[in-house]
Amino acid sequence: MTSDTTEMTLARTLQPQEVASVLARVAEVRPRVQCLTNTVAQNITANMLLAFGAIPSMAIHVDEVAAMAEGAGAILINIGTINAESELAIPKLLEVARDRGKPLVFDPVFVELSPLRRHIAGQVLRLPDILVRGNATEMAALSFDLAAAKGVTRVTTGKVDRIESSAVSFAVAHGHPLMTRVTGIGCAAGALIAACCAVEANKAVAAAAALTAYGIAGEIAAERCRGPGSFEVELIDAVAAMDAATLAARMGTGR
Ligand SMILES: Nc1ncnc2c1ncn2[C@@H]1O[C@H](COP(=O)(O)OP(=O)(O)OP(=O)(O)O)[C@@H](O)[C@H]1O
Ligand SMILES: Cc1ncsc1CCO
Ligand SMILES: [Mg+2]
Predict the structure, then answer these.
(1) Distance in Å, CA 38 to ligand 2 centroid
(2) Which ligand 2 atom is the nearest neighbour of the CA of 186?
(3) At what angle do helices 185-197 and 42-52 cross, to 10 degrees?
(4) What's the whole-number average pLDDT of the chain?
(5) Which pLDDT band holds residue 252 (cuts at 50, 70, 90)?
(6) What average pLDDT does the segment 139-152 reach?
(7) ipTM, two decimals
(8) How close is the Cα of 82 to the center of ligand 1, in Å?
(9) Which atom of ligand 1 is nearest to the CA of 156?
(10) Choices 3.40.190.10, 1.25.60.10, 3.40.50.300, 3.40.1190.20: CATH for 12-250
(11) What is the per-residue pLDDT across 168-193, written as a single tens digit (0 to 9) for each?
(12) Is 41 in the pocket of ligand 2 (CB under 6 A)?
């Protein structure tokens, strides 16, 4: 409890104009995010990136992922439905991220459940300066590896999102419980964070901006939907409609 309170006290919240600035750069640059992601979340991830003003590319073939990643603004690796081929594609993406200095977001889906996932996570975490986005269970399962990783930015999503780098920490208290009732909403969050990392060098700021906008979109979608099915549709619409005025109005309410 004490450490949680301390963390709460030290964590910053972005100002509305800081979030708007990152979103404006995404809209202007339209970064492409090369996503090696799971088969469940591919569609929602691609649609959420488009709604956000970014460009999705969802290539998975082991012999082309490197070429696809070369010109991308950021790379996402999500191990949700890892298979024998995508396992081989991961080192190719890590090489491009390293050689070209591209931002890399890693989503360690269900890493607590299988030795293979843990092994792959260990490989990915050897690359310095990556961003890892997972839910509380996944991030807890990786706590030792994360503590040893060089320059890592840790993003733990949930009711309150916690973003931590060696230099700074942010808390984002936006969102809605319906965000846990549609599969792939967390996976898509990783892609939006990657899009922001393509235009904002400070990865913690990029993640806080993406999750603030996403959480506020979740609150708006919850007001408009009839249940989880229409929530997904409304969330995509609310992400697409997000603007500086909405951010200022919703972030000023002192939630
Ligand atoms: N109880 C909650 N209240 C408000 N927002 C939430 C809540 N739980 C999660 N969120 C939001 O939902 C989004 C997804 O986070 P979550 O931790 O549920 O991902 P996940 O478990 O990896 O999901 P998935 O694997 O199904 O894609 C984040 O933007 C987070 O802020
Ligand atoms: C349900 C599910 N199973 C593997 S990946 C995935 C999507 C949420 O992470
Ligand atoms: Mg997940």
Answers:
(1) 7
(2) 9
(3) 40
(4) 95
(5) confident
(6) 98
(7) 0.98
(8) 21
(9) 17
(10) 3.40.1190.20
(11) 999 999 999 999 999 999 999 999 99
(12) yes
